[in-house]
Specification:
The protein is of the alpha/beta class. The protein contains seven helices and eight strands.
């Protein structure tokens, strides 16, 4: 847990970078117990209202504060000001105009700039955390050293930081490809120049 303690010792809260990797839902529920600190996690509500309520109730019982994605920024900043941990899923497609394009397995992928912007705004470091299912059925949590926040919120800085965080996820997937659990279209949004080239005669 030295990487967790080192990140939290900075006193700015910690942004925990989580991917759809291994049993990520179990990871979210276990972070308060494993790390010893409260966790808030940003998530979209599930479409099924019954399952959604069950999931949020499980989080509450585990000591996890669920933050609806539509109201994430202010609630996340408040949690970070209390030196808490805020979980952030980075490996999701963002609609054109709402994300920054960074390389992901050799192809531009529209990715939220929110992690980089929030880190720069609050001074909170980013802590990559993964969970892997082992052959014996148990789960192993891996915590990597934290990334210091970006120096500013300029577009090029945000893009470079987002690319660095995405590269960490890609490296982990390359090491354990069987652990990546993701069925949405990660590369759905395309860069404007790619669309223009496709439309050219």
């Amino acid at each position: 847990l030295e990487h967790v303690q080192a990140a939290r010792a900075l006193g700015k809260g910690v942004l925990v970078s989580i991917a759809h990797f291994g049993n990520y839902a179990l990871l979210a529920l276990q972070v308060p117990r494993l790390f010893g600190y409260p966790l808030s996690i940003i998530a979209k509500p599930l479409r099924n209202a019954t399952l959604n309520e069950l999931w949020w109730e499980l989080q509450r019982k585990a000591g996890v504060n669920g933050i609806p994605a539509h109201n994430a920024y202010r609630a996340s900043v408040r949690a970070l000001k209390d030196n808490g941990l805020v979980g952030f899923m980075l490996d999701q497609n963002r609609p054109a105009g709402m994300g920054v394009f960074v390389d992901f397995f050799g192809k531009p992928a529209s990715t939220t700039p929110g992690l980089a912007v929030m880190s720069a705004h609050t001074g909170a470091p980013v802590l990559p955390v993964f969970v892997r299912r082992l052959p014996d059925g148990t789960n192993q949590v891996e915590v990597l050293p934290h990334l210091p926040p970006p120096v500013d919120r300029r577009p090029e800085t945000v893009q470079a930081f987002t690319a660095a965080c995405t590269r960490i996820i890609e490296d982990e997937i390359r090491r354990h490809p069987d652990q990546w659990l993701w069925w949405h279209k990660r590369w759905k949004s395309r860069p404007p120049e790619e669309k223009a080239a496709a439309a050219a005669p």
